[in-house]
Design a protein that fits this description.
GO terms for molecular function: diguanylate cyclase activity. It catalyses: 2 GTP = 3',3'-c-di-GMP + 2 diphosphate. It comes from Octadecabacter arcticus 238. This is diguanylate cyclase. By secondary structure, this protein is an alpha/beta fold. It folds into three domains: about 1-105, 3-Layer(aba) Sandwich (Rossmann fold), CATH 3.40.50; about 150-275, 3-Layer(aba) Sandwich (Rossmann fold), CATH 3.40.50; about 305-400, Reverse transcriptase/Diguanylate cyclase domain (Alpha-Beta Plaits). The protein has 15 helices and 16 strands. The strands form four sheets. The protein has a five-stranded parallel beta sheet with strand order 2-1-3-4-5, sandwiched between helices. The protein has a five-stranded parallel beta sheet with strand order 7-6-8-9-10, with helices on both faces. Helix 5 (about 110-140) packs parallel to helix 10 and helix 13 (about 335-340) packs across helix 14 (about 345-360). It is globular. The chain starts with a strand and ends with a strand.
Length: about 425
């Protein structure tokens, strides 16, 4: 997972050591000794993540975090605060100032790498949702009304009975929360389809006989449609570094050790619940609020009205962070002959099956839209090489199997589907 990481540390040795470790993981690294240097680097190009040492001047560093989170251009950049953190309260203060995570020195390298991967994944998901919400605004739709806010649903799973005191009191200290508890081993057998859970608390501080139990639970929760978007906070024994790193890579939203106090657990729970509720609201905006206006009725894909403003936003974001993206225009040549030979109902079914095949072989972050009669547009947040590979895969997908449309199948349009390289131009327009 490539990314641009900004290191802010006043000690040259620390900067060098971190840079070497991150470069070995294929990250781009920009080390800074002072906040002034960091501000200049951020102004020149937004980083994907910031590693901030707060040992030298905690108050100044906290103010820096607050300023980044208050700015709409930088508030999605994850911040990992590192330092000595002499008291548990010091960690909570850093989190309240805007740090997305805190690591007490010396920290395990595997944990650092897993934290970075997890935060970058979360940032990409939030950025995509934010971009789609901005597109909705650009289309001129009003913001959704804030209706009745139901209590957040929290499920606390434990390995010891009863539930630990610092967790049993969360329902009183967290605002508008409905909490239930059960044995951790019961999670994989629990029927969670009756409603959406906002946060899972997995209290494994007493230990597990087998770490694979935790890994199975995480895999199960991330697989189910009703729980895949829920926040997951895993509490682990102090020395469970391997389990913590694996948990983050398998989909845990956050992990903490048994050394943290109740205030930090409460803060992390509140952040995860709020993030889940905000993401749900943004998803509902896209899925329901705009469906009629921005969805092609024949294929269920986004239509031109959605795609064009979204491409404008994507282009602006690309210029801002320096990341490449690629656009493909897919066209079914001689599609008119299908309509003429078999009728428009069969032609519509071919379009629906084409859309289904394309959608099933693209990622959630890729944009797929129908922009014309038999023309489809794909926007991929990668460079030309990945786009060419994807284009060839999609070409084979469409041309490699027949389209079965009742009462009789149409021929496969294998000879009618082509993609042209950027250097091949017609009328001044190239497609790649």
């Amino acid at each position: 997972m490539a990314g641009d990481i900004l290191i802010i540390d006043g000690v040259a040795t620390n900067r060098i050591v971190l840079k070497v470790k991150l470069l070995a993981s294929q990250y781009r690294v920009r080390p800074c000794a002072t906040l002034d240097e960091a501000r200049a680097e951020i102004a020149a190009s937004l980083p994907d993540l910031i590693l901030l040492d707060i040992s030298s001047d905690a108050e100044q560093m906290h103010a820096f975090c607050q300023s980044l989170k208050a700015d709409a251009n930088t508030n999605l950049i994850p911040i990992i605060a590192t330092g000595g953190f002499k008291t548990p309260r010091d960690r909570v203060v850093a989190l309240e100032a805007g740090a997305d995570d805190v690591l007490t020195k010396p920290f395990d390298d595997h944990i650092l790498q897993a934290r970075i991967r997890s935060l970058l994944r979360g940032r990409d998901a939030r950025q995509e949702l934010r971009m789609r919400d901005d597109t909705r605004t650009a289309l001129g739709f009003a913001e959704a009304c804030n209706g009745f806010k139901a209590p957040a649903r929290v499920v606390a799973a434990f390995t010891t009975n009863p539930l630990a005191p610092d967790l049993s009191h969360l329902s009183q200290t967290l605002e508008n929360v409905q909490m239930t508890s059960l044995q951790a081993e019961c999670l994989t057998r629990l029927d969670l389809n009756s409603g959406s859970t906002d946060l899972f608390l997995l209290d494994l501080r007493a230990g597990l006989s087998d770490d694979n139990v935790l890994f199975r639970i995480l895999s199960e929760l991330r697989t189910r449609s009703t729980t895949r978007h829920a926040g997951i906070l895993v509490l682990l024994p102090e020395d469970a570094h391997h389990a913590a790193a694996m948990a983050l890579d398998l989909g845990a939203s956050d992990t903490v050790y048994s050394t943290v106090d109740a205030a930090e657990i409460r803060h992390r729970c509140a952040v995860l619940i709020q993030a889940k509720l905000e993401a749900d609201a943004l998803r509902r905006t896209v899925e329901t609020g705009l469906e009629a206006a921005i969805t092609d009725p024949h294929t269920g894909l986004f239509n031109r009205r959605y795609a064009m403003p979204h491409l404008t936003r994507l282009s602006a974001q690309s210029r801002k962070d320096g990341r490449q993206f690629a656009i493909m225009v897919l066209d079914l040549d001689h599609f008119k002959s299908i309509n003429d030979t078999y009728g428009h109902k069969v032609g519509d079914e071919v379009l629906r099956q084409t859309a289904s095949r394309l959608q099933g072989n693209l990622r959630a972050v890729d944009l797929l839209a129908r922009i014309g009669g038999e023309e489809f547009l794909v926007a991929i947040p990668n460079g030309v090489y990945h786009a060419r590979t994807a284009a060839e895969r999609l070409r084979k997908l469409i041309g490699g199997a027949p389209f079965f449309c009742w009462p009789r199948p149409t021929r496969s349009p294998r000879d009618d589907v082509r993609w042209c390289q950027p250097e091949r131009r017609t009328g001044g327009h190239g497609y790649g």
